Amino acid sequence: MLTLQEQTATDELPLSYLPFISSIKKRGLKLKEVACQGYPVGWYGEKRKSTNRMVKVICYYLDGTINLYMRPIEGITIIVLIDQMTIASYIDRLIVPVPKANGTDYMGSKLQRSSHESNSIKIVQPDGPSFTLDDGNTVRWGDWKFHVAYDMRAGIIISLASMFDAEKENFVVAYFDAGEFGFGLCAVELEPSKDCPENAKKMPNVICIFERYAGDIMWRHTEDAIPGKKIRKVRPEVSLVVRMVSTVGNYDYITDYEFKQSGTIKVMVGLTGLLEVRGSIYTHNDQIKAEVYSTLIAENTLGAYHDHFFTYHLDLDVDGHENSFVKNNLKTRRVINKSSPRKSYWTVVSETAETESDAKIQLGYCLIPGGSATSPLLSDNDYPQIRGGFTKYNVWVTPYNKSEKWAGGLYTDQSHGDDTLAIWSLRDREIKNKDIVLWYTFGVHHVPKQEDFPIMPTLSTSFELKPTNFFQHNPVL
Ligand SMILES: [Cu+2]
Questions:
Q1: pLDDT tens, 205-259?
Q2: Which of 8, 55, 108, 265 is 20 to 30 A from 352, alpha carbon to alpha carbon?
Q3: Among candidates 103, 9, 10, which has minimal Cα distance to 65?
Q4: Interval between CA 362 and ligand 1 midpoint (Å)
Q5: Is residue 291 part of a domain?
Q6: Is residue 132 part of a domain?
Q7: Are residues 331 and 438 in the same domain?
Q8: Longest alpha-carbon distance in the chain
Q9: How many structural domains is the chain composed of?
Q10: What is the DSSP string of 316-336?
């Protein structure tokens, strides 16, 4: 991974590099208003296996805004060798107008307070939170108990999650992969009462835990069929959230694990921060004749189409190590003899996956509100797709293997895609009644829009792990 120290050193390198200084002068820009940022170089099919750790550096222009990402300085390609901390290649190809600073700033003092702005809101728990944190890692809340850990690459790791039931306990382990920068490494300090509500408890600096009540109903019923009685019972939907925020350059990722009283674990990722844009000669859509694979989101500013995929490593040990993966399909059954006045019914057809290839499922569009199960739009032989081969299917199941921890491979930076979930699965191993790992991938095809400029409203995607015929009754009761 790229360490923070390496990133800082890389970002400063061009500012004292003579050819770069003259490129800035040539563009009529002020050097003191320039800020640079390193990005992974990727892999595009080069045969030679590079042992050099390197990054590509892109520079931006401040001069009147704090939102540097909206003002890329185009036409310059800088490659930095990290271990040597030197500029290995420098090319100044062409001059493109730098997008305007006007209207890009997001600091409060520069913005006029709108009269429509809403009053402040507070969530209070006069008796304090109802969860406890033992040894700094074990959370107990209602019938739930789980362990929260921090990992440099994965960020939050939830393990040994169990929900007390007279007979059953439910165990879960999850990892989050962010191989080039590290989600944990990029975790940022949370701002009280804003990143997390006022009733949140913070584990040192970066993880917060809080009870969420958003005014929703978990369960209710009014019973008036019993003569002389009027019964009403309502339970508010209160859940427990474990949250971390990672800032990777321009993007901010919010990761939530939400534990519900119904036994469900909801996993959510929110994308916000600032879009990565390219400078362009275009100021109006009419001028664009060639394919730009982008939206013109402001004058001289193109927001490129791109994807975000998130893969969760769910090492589920439900009631022990030996687990199987069962696909449930809903099928229409037609009534052919005259056994019923009805013409059709529908039923559930279950099949247990024997090997890894049986368990690959393309969900297409998932109906979980706020969630998306996206399929890749790139061709299978495209290099980013080879490296991210695990995005091809939304669901994969593998037998547990200690070395198969990260869907994108142990070493992601400049990887050639030879150590991914897609490759391991080619062995088509047996997964029935085994210690299995469920991999779930979801994502978004991000088509930038004008409203993503100059700051991006949070875009959330999620999935739920919901108990199904696991508890003998609704644990809410
Ligand atoms: Cu995006």
A1: 899 999 999 999 999 999 988 889 999 999 999 999 999 999 988 999 999 999 9
A2: 265
A3: 103
A4: 22
A5: no
A6: yes
A7: yes
A8: 90
A9: 3
A10: -EETSSEE--EEEEEEEEE--
The CATH number for 247's domain is: 2.70.98.20
251 annotated active-site: yes
Domain span including residue 12? 4-106
Active site residue: 17, 150, 251, 400, which one? 251
Query: 365 pLDDT exceeds 50?
Result: no
Q: Which of 177, 256, 315, 413 is catalytic?
A: 177
CATH at 52: 3.10.450.40
Residue 271 CA, ligand 1 centroid: distance in Å = 7
How far does the centroid of ligand 1 lie from the alpha carbon of residue 447, in Å? Answer: 8
pLDDT of residue 421: 95
**What is the C-alpha separation between 246 and 441, in angstroms, rounded?**
19
- Give the pLDDT score at 366: 29
Got the DSSP string for 340-400?
SS-SEEEEEEEEE--BGGGG-B---S--STT---PPP-S-TTSHHHHHTGGGS-SEEEEE-
What pLDDT sits at residue 101?
A: 93
Q: Does the active-site annotation cover 319?
A: no
Which of the four pLDDT bands, split at 50, 70 and 90, describes residue 110? low
Q: Are 267 and 156 part of one and the same domain? A: yes
Is 435 within the bounds of a domain?
yes
Q: 273 CA distance to ligand 1 centroid (A)?
A: 9
Residues 6 or more apart whose Cβ sits within 8 Å of residue 121: none
Do residues 78 and 50 lie in contact, with contact meaning Cβ atoms separated by under 8 Å? no
